[in-house]
Amino acid sequence: MVLIAATVCTKSGKALVSRQFVEMTKARIEGLLAAFPKLMTGGRQHTFVETESVRYVYQPLDKLYMLLITTKASNILEDLETLRLFSRVVPEYCVQLTETEVLNQAFNLLFAFDEIVALGYRESVNLAQVRSFVEMDSHEEKIYQAVRQTQEREAANRMRERAKELQRERLEAAKRGQPPRSQMSFGSGFGSSTMSSSSPSESIAEKIPTTPARDTRTVGRSAMKLGSRGTDADSFVSRLRSEGDVTAPVASPAQHDAGKPVPADHKDTNGYNCATGGLLTLRISNEQFGRIHVHVDNKDSRPLQLQTHPNVDKEAFRSTGVIGLKQAQRPFPMHSDVGVLKWRLATTNDDKLAPLSVNCWPSEGVNGGCDVNIEYELEQDHLVLTDVNITIPLPSGNTSVVVHQWEGSYTQKGRNLIWSIPLVSKQQKTGSLEFTVTPSIPNDFFPLSVTWTSETSLALLTAVKVTQAEDGSPVDFSQEISFHADKYEFV
């Protein structure tokens, strides 16, 4: 017997996987494969068909064919026996006999074909031997896998010990009435997080355009620089000079996008790195209300660092919480988002200052997989976060993900598991997700990233009223707040 080629093809003759065993030009083998479907006309019920030069021996596999091309001089009984072995090998590697599955398992099928036939002649092997040869069992690989599993177990034990230590610190701090130093679970903690908040106001008669705020969070101290899109200190002064006596519509206090993060010395202590800040902006679009005072109420008990614009009367703000210009006869600029008050939250190593904490607990399970428990908790009760999405990376390769328990909903997109919670508030401040991934190791699930939207501000600063600078008469206004995370990760 001389076997020319073995092919898995569709009933229309399209070759999915083909292995050639003798020397032959590509054009010749393609011509032989192209001729096969033409010979199948007329509803043939045989298992072979011959031409002047070759014999086609075939067997249907659902919507596919297992096809052998041999010489006409080969023994037909041996051909059929070989065909049966090939037909058993294909389902061994293809769970479903479809085109997609065959293409996905192409390399395994080719390796198996090579174990059955060598140089055109059938090898004396059975299905079990083919399976064993294709698996390529290696002693060195077993040693490598054993070492890797030992290292993973040691790493998991270290993380468990660290988690216990953090839990003890938390309990001891609670007994002393002090905030815990950290709420990180093993393998998790704050990496870097930047959040944004904004809150613009408008007049009743006319909608005031707003710009999203940016809240940049880093650990450390430094001078803060006031800035916004197109409105730095110089342009602000020049506009004041150019506007003269022109006045404008209601003040629009807002925490506005400052454009760039607040410069600060970056320090990472105990895995926690967090900086928060925001900007109150003012937009006037009615010239009747150019000279105004914005009354700000600060109910935040945390150590907020506040800084007003250089042209704002600092003494008036410190004593009465009123934002107004030093030169009272000058109006605020028209139709521009003007940053008038900047705030920054002094950071410590306590992640209670963060809006949301997320703990990830991966632990080794059976069959080389990991059981993962993830929980979130709202740290600031006054916040209401909507459309919260926690993105958990998954290991590469063929993995199985089974979710056991969850709040909200989840979806798998590529190599990420996205956990979605529609609302997180004081009434619904915690939730958990439990799932198993096989195969995996604990480090596969970091870093976690979190996004959300919110109409509540992180800082408890509120523009309570707006009045005319001349006579103190009230001015109608409105305000909008936008708070979101530019980058919020747990690594």
UniProtKB/TrEMBL annotation:
CDD domains assigned: AP_delta-COPI_MHD, Delta_COP_N
Start-end of Basic and acidic residues biased regions: 151-175, 257-269
Gene Ontology biological process: endoplasmic reticulum to Golgi vesicle-mediated transport; Golgi localization; protein transport; retrograde vesicle-mediated transport, Golgi to endoplasmic reticulum
InterPro entries: AP2_Mu_C_sf, AP_mu_sigma_su, Coatomer_dsu, Longin-like_dom_sf, MHD
Superkingdom of the organism of origin: Eukaryota
Statement: the UniProt record of this protein carries the keyword Protein transport: yes
Gene Ontology cellular component annotations, sorted alphabetically: COPI vesicle coat; Golgi membrane
Subcellular location: Cytoplasm; Cytoplasmic vesicle, COPI-coated vesicle membrane; Golgi apparatus membrane
Main localization (coarse): cytoplasm
Family from the record: Belongs to the adaptor complexes medium subunit family. Delta-COP subfamily.
Protein name, per record: Coatomer subunit delta
